[in-house]
Amino acid sequence: MERQEPRHVTAIPRLWPFKRVFYGWAVVAASSSAVFTQVPMYGPVISVFVKPIGDEMGWSRGEIALAFTGGSLVGLGLSAVVGKQLDRYGARAAVVVAGMIVAGVLVGLALMQEVWHFWLLFGIGRTAALAGINLGTSVAVVNWFVRRRGRAVAFLGMSLRGGQAVFPLLIVAIMAGYSWRHAFGVLAVISLVFVVTPAWIFLRRRPEDLGLLPDGDPPPAESSPAAPSGPLGAAGPQPSRASRGEASWTLGEARRTRAFWLLVVATMGVVFAQTAVNLHAVASFQDRGIADAFAGVFVFVYAGTAAVSAVPFGSLADRIHIRWVVVIATLFFGASIVVMIAADSVATALLFAVLYGLGAGGWTIGYTLLFANYFGRGHVGAVRGFAQTVSSPVGAVGPLLAGYLHGVTGNYTLSFQIMLGSFAVVLVALLLAKPPRKPGPAA
Fold first, then answer.
1. 3-class SS at 439?
2. Which residues contact 248 (CB under 8 A, 6 or more apart)?
3. Domain positions in the chain
């Protein structure tokens, strides 16, 4: 990680104290802080609020799920537009603005009175988290690394799942002493401090903008500071050996490959099933008589397992193709749903949480690495953003469908059987998604 002093020292933010450490790790640190703190807009954390809010306000599970689905649809739908801007301008502004929106939304949730308030506010916050913070930080990190991309992204995955493990315990404690409204207020302050501030200070677009190379590689002996930068179009040194070995596909080129559309199907299926399980799992166990107090512990075990497993999954992704990493993760997801359908005790619920956490840990890495490792970092914002937009209509309806079927059948059994089938489709798509080869010299 230690490298020679960068050529353009004045371009490195002065508040970054580790001047001899590759600046990409500053981007990782700021991004990790943001994704750790955005988790109130994600299913595992908001699921802790579902029953208390429903009981107090008289809202059904389907009504609550509608906000989650609406935010997911809009957030994923905007990803194509945001992704192109991330490639051009970087993630700094997108993450800062999204963090401010999330903080404002949490204040609004603390004060809401009508169900449409929840739909509007949570929908906006979920949109900002997905299209701004999640996509922005992912693109930022993959742009700074090639050889060590899996390990760098593992920090993002660990932070996201770590936040999902820690925040429910904090929320349950606040609700026990005060109320769910107080919990939203506390989360608003935390989001403002730990998303907006680090992103504004430390996020930068690409290493070439600072006269650096991906992974902190030294420049080739034959290159000079004045040499053109190649296909990325940024001022700075020539691409490193690792960067030159990675083909960079434009969005148009990627869309003409079979692998791209198979990856769209795979990510669509995972989002469809995972978001539904994230939002409804806690309520499902509570419906079966498992103590309400178990809610925070369950989310802690699931998200904690995902956080810990993100590190070995990230290291594995630097050694084998990312396709096989997410195949393994998908098998864990499928096994967890089989356990969940039959679970009737704390012990089986915990077994589900561990298996599901392992699947989530692998797929947390997969969401970020799949399109970057298949199609390169040059246009990863546009490629991944378009993929999310295409998959959003199907991927985002999982929570709403599960809530509707709960209202019709009185339980979640049919919903979770459908989710199991979705994971089977994901597995088939991944097995068929052979990485394409780009004709001509690698970009």
1. coil
2. 231, 232, 375, 376, 377, 378, 379, 442, 443
3. 20-214+240-432
d(CA 302, CA 214): 33
Choices 3.40.50.150, 3.40.50.720, 3.30.470.20, 1.20.1250.20: CATH for 20-214+240-432: 1.20.1250.20
Q: What are phi and psi of 416, to 5 degrees?
A: -75, -30
Q: Which two tokens stand for residue 438?
A: 């780009």
Backbone angles phi, psi at 65, to 5 degrees: -65, -25
Q: At residue 400, what are phi and psi to the nearest 5 degrees?
A: -65, -40
Q: Given this model, what pLDDT does residue 324 score?
A: 95
Question: Taking the chain, what is the end-to-end CA distance rounded to the nearest angstrom?
Answer: 25
Residue-wise pLDDT tens digits, 350-364: 898 899 999 998 998
pTM for the model stands at: 0.71
Low-confidence stretches of the chain (pLDDT beneath 70): 1-11, 68, 71-73, 75-77, 80, 220-246, 291-296, 395-396, 439-443
**CA 112 to centroid of chain Cα atoms:** 27
Q: Which amino acid is present at 20?
A: R
> How does the average pLDDT of the chain come out, rounded?
82
